Amino acid sequence: MMLLLSIGAWAQHEYYDKALAAYKEGNLGLAMQYLEKQCSEAECDFASQWLGMEIFYSAQEYQLAGQIAEKLLPQLKKDAHDSRCTVYAYMAVAAFENEDYKTANKLLTNALKEDPKSSYCYYERAYTSVAQEHYDAAIKDLKKSIEFEPDRIEAYTLAGLCYEAKKDTVNMHKCYQTAIEKTNGETPWVWCEYGATYFNRGQIDRAIDMLFKAITLDPENARTGRFYNFLQKHDAVLLKDRLKAKVEEEPWNPTWEALLGDSYETIDSLPEAYMHYRIASLQDATYDGGVQPLRRLAQALADADDYEGALLLLEEGLEVNPMFLPYRRLKHAYTYNKGDYAQALEEAERLMDIDEKQKDDLMFLTADYLCKLGRYEEAMVRCLEILKTRDEYNNLTLLMAELYRKMGKTAEAESNYRILIKQADDYFDYATMTPKPITKETADRLGSFTLPRSLMGIGLQDKAQEVVRIMNGKISTALNENPDLQLDATLLYNLACVNAVVGMHSDAISMLELADKFGHSQPRYTLVDPDFESVRNSQDAEVKEQWQKLIDKMTEAQRAKAKRIHEAIDGVKLTEKQRIIKK
Description:
The chain is mostly helical. It has helices spanning about 1-5, 15-25, 30-40, 45-60, 60-70, 80-95, 100-115, 120-130, 135-150, 155-165, 170-180, 190-200, 205-215, 220-225, 225-250, 255-265, 270-285, 295-305, 305-320, 325-335, 340-355, 360-370, 375-390, 395-405, 410-435, 440-445, 450-455, 460-480, 490-500, 505-515, 525, 535, 540-570, 575-580.
């Protein structure tokens, strides 16, 4: 984010080249890091500013892309029509995100003056007109968009929406049917958009017919689309009944069994949901379309703190396909969550060979596991290996500080802790001192917690406790102002951890209880989490009693939940269909 606040000069071209390469590979986060590295007090050159704009736009950071575009506009020559068109378009998208539809419309008009044949700009301007309910203007622009790009499918569906708003059902059907013809009926989202028109007119059965066509083409995309979720919320019972009929019609298709389980889960009929997930997983152990039945069962058991049961289920799928990434990733996560760091290390190393996208993160995790296993020298070697390919980041710096401390290298440890304290200044002011309520952005910043840990690392316990008290106060204030506020459970768990680390044991237990209330209930991992070691070993009788009561309460609730899930899984009747499947 610093790129926008101080678009500085590039100290070395190698960082620009690295940013460009990362951008082309689709690694936008790394590309942003390299661009920020280039910033200095001087002006940034044109190419770097342009790359920054493209990266932010691709990352859907439209406000940042639009602000950079605004800075670029005066630098463009009057005859640089293509570039000026792009800049106006990015500024328009930023305005649209701010719900300033009039400004967005004007900016797109400017873009079209630069390139009068831009199908994209006509389409985007139509969108601004739809937002203002100017449907005739939108239809006019959509016709121009289609004229210059006849295969722009979204233009047909948006035109259909406009005709629907004008109650012109003849042209509405023509638009959607043209979109279906042009995609040979093989594009799920077109069927979903068409289905929405039937839903809006109260024809729910026809709407579900359209949804089922989308599901047949691509269960995952159709299942995660807004139309499916909308139907689930509006009439989950009707959708469930139609899915039951579909299961009878196609009894060997795991898609319908899995989606039926999804519908039961929506109406809180969990035993039935788990039963249908189980049937679907028996039909195809690695079926992963949309609902991911075996994965959902494993996750339910893991949520109930039954990691052994979850891992046994995952093994069923891995026996069929040992390289199936979704199950491999979950297996790695669950071995860690049950506190088996040696097994988690093995799983992470196995994943590194097959999961290129997460290789860097996995390398860091293996270093962390080695640290937890007491293999400090090996962990440090991996940390240094990471630094060869990417710049420092907070979690790595903190891990290295901890490693140096445990290896008795006090000066090196203090140096890394002080790096984090210096980096945390802006974060500390922003996240803990401003009167803003807890939002996703402030929660994310609170979630790193490197500052209090680093202060503890150099012996400043009082200062660390002061920081944590301010963090606790932010949570309390937010809940007092809005008792219905939904806070991130992982954030609360991490805050409980940092309370324990700085020696505020009663506060740690209170925050852990709050985390449990919001859904982070993992008594098994909590009992082995190194952050809570001082709480577990506390000599204060009251603290020990509070801790044990909370752990017992969490454990009892999780056991009851796990029992219910196992009963549903084990209760699948072996009809002739399942017997054949199992053979």
